[in-house]
Design brief:
Number of strands: 5
Largest sheet: 5 strands, antiparallel
Strand order of the largest sheet: 1-3-4-5-2
Helix content: 10-25%
Number of helices: 1
Strand content: 35-45%
Order of helices and strands: EHEEEE
C-alpha cells in the first residue's frame, strides 16, 4: 500500500543521496542526525549560491521530522529562499524520500536553516543583492 504523498517537492534540488545501512540508529531506521546533516549540506550549497560566498550555518528552526527514512530510500533535499538580510539568509529546506517500489516521493523532513555569509577570514560580510534579471 502506498503512503499518502504531499503535492510534491518544491524548490531547487540541492543534493540527492541514498540512505545506507551505516546511517542507521539502534532501531534500524535512518538516524535523524544523518538526515539533518544532509539537509545542512544541501542548504549550504544553496546559500553559497545565493550569497556568492562561503556561508556557515548559524541556526536551525522549525524542524519537523514527519516520516521515518529507511535504508535504500533515495533522499533529495530541496531549497527555497525565505529571507535575505544584510549578512544572513534563511532557507526553507525539504527532504523527500523515494521508497523502493514507489513512484512518488514523500516529504520526510522540513525546516528553516539560517546561514551567514563569511569572508576569507571567517568574518560576517554583507550579501551582495543582485537585481532580478530583466526579461527582454
Amino acid at each position: 500500500m502506498s503512503e499518502q504523498a504531499a503535492p510534491g517537492p518544491n524548490g531547487d534540488l540541492c543534493i540527492r543521496t541514498l540512505a545506507m545501512p551505516a546511517d542507521t540508529n539502534a532501531n534500524g531506521d535512518i538516524f535523524g542526525g544523518w538526515l539533518l546533516s544532509q539537509m545542512d549540506v544541501g542548504g549550504g550549497v544553496f546559500a553559497s549560491k545565493v550569497a556568492r560566498s562561503r556561508t556557515v550555518t548559524v541556526a536551525i528552526e522549525a524542524m519537523n521530522f514527519r516520516k521515518a527514512v529507511y535504508v535504500g530510500d533515495l533522499v533529495s533535499v530541496y531549497a527555497n529562499l525565505v529571507r535575505v538580510g544584510r549578512t544572513s539568509l534563511t532557507v526553507h529546506l525539504e527532504a523527500w524520500a523515494l521508497r523502493r517500489r514507489e513512484l512518488s516521493p514523500i516529504l520526510v523532513t522540513d525546516g528553516n536553516f539560517t546561514y551567514v555569509s563569511i569572508d576569507d577570514e571567517g568574518r560576517p560580510q554583507a550579501i551582495q543583492k543582485v537585481d532580478p534579471p530583466i526579461a527582454t
